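Morning run. Coffee first, then this:
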Amino acid sequence: MRYITFSLLTSFLVSLFEFTPAPVNADQQAYAPVTAQRLLQPEPENWLMYRGTYDSWGYSPLDQITPANVGKLVPVWTFSTGVTEGHQAPPIVNNGVMFVTSPENQVFAFNAKTGDLLWRYERELPEDLFQLHPTNRGVALYGDKVYFGTVDTCVVALDAKTGAVVWEEELEDYLSGYYMTLAPLAVNGKIIVGMSGGEFGIRGFIQALDAETGKSIWKTHTIPGPGEPGHGSWAGESWKTGGVSIWVTGSYDPDLNLTFWGTGNAGPFMGEARPGNNLYSTSVIALDADSGELKAHHQYHWNGSWDWDEVSAPLLIDVKKGDRTFKGLVHPARNGYLWTLERSADAINFVEAQPFVRQNVFKSIDPETGRPEYDTTKIPGIGRRAEYCPSSWGGKDWPPAAYNPKTGLLYVPANENLCGALTGRKETYRPGQLYMGVAFPDDFELLPHPDAKDHIGELQAWDLNAGKKVWTSTFKSHNWGPVLTTGGGLVFMGGTNDRYFRAFDAKTGQVLWQQRTNSGVTGVPTTYQVDGVQYVAVLSGWGVDAERKQEMLNTFYGTKTHVPQGGVLWVFAVRE
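And here it is:
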């Protein structure tokens, strides 16, 4: 846990000096507005949204950097953010201008070729703000503005050329436990965000704002209220404080005009405290982008007690099974299963699921509905300890997977050989206070399998059509690395406690290049091109759950592995 506070001196100085935008230079004058059409078909040289494209592939068609020359990749510029904790945002690039965020809600704009700082926005955060997850996962671009969500529950629109605030809208009360960490999703003139804070007993929601004015267009709760479908899946008044946070940016299908979002676990953690299926926790939900109407859902597991939220957005991939090709939703889940679903205008149908790491909680999965049956001895409860695999951090946590249409492979950042245990406790809801039903770290246990001595972290490659794993690259460290893949036949990923950022052969998994950075790499890598040169960019900066998990591994093994903190933006290019 981290408390973010500011000294009286800092507050005094901020009050004295109002934000003054720097003079607009030639780079900023040439800034190209980001239209709805450009977001539908981004130019290869740009990276305009969280995962590059609406389908969440994390793929760039740029092919200048290849297995043949990636060994000549070198740092060409770097930038220190000046803060610690988890740096998880992707560098977003529009026609040579880069935008990136850091913890403490800073936004930076750079010349993407030279690294020159164009402007910086630094938010003054409330002194009484309690942050359990001090991070920010990036910006959205639309028109001539840059949008991001804050930990004190605001959406802020900045002028892309100057960094000046254009508008700001407060969506909830941070003192009640609400906050935001995700990068917004820009769709047809709307800025769509989701609210975190499930560990404080909030009621999660997704909301769309008008990109020009910030006024609310629609708001959809992730826990249905009275009279709404699914409300009966919550016992008594538990729906009011059931959590179901949104942590990561959703996907969008323009043909169906549906946005797809992964949802968090229900709260408090122990399922017996809130009997029922608890819709729409640990699910993928489909919302109409214009109205926010919930059109369909699939729940990966029901009434969960393992802290397995399923917040990663599904990848929108066409999958072929036999003679049939269908519009898929693919999700490597925290619960340890790789899910393949089929999407349509009004339904999400189960196709198949199989474990990609050691999993001993699900006894079976219904072949028609995809509903798992549990081994009851693996379910923790209030005053009842249970062991289970994978651990509460899951087979894959929030770091996004990637898909390469050239290789036809899905790349999954996984953690194998880690099990865990939980013991629940009775919890009383108090607004703005933790409402988890467990205490960290007292009630959490990390139980590495004997095989964990050989390796924990993995990068897996899957052939979705065949339903088979093609290759695995392993690491002694646990893995918190988001994945990027490219048309040049490469996969990029960091995530390990040795501080390396790596390039892999997309067909074989062979490590072709690695660069040790200042800290652990938990940022989302991106790639872009300026003046004919392809660059790869990533934030290095260990913290949040990667740090907490390392501390528990150190306790278990009696080790003293230390990963220094501090955010640095690294930009690489091939140099002969």
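Residues 1-20 have pLDDT under 50 and may be disordered. Good start to the day.
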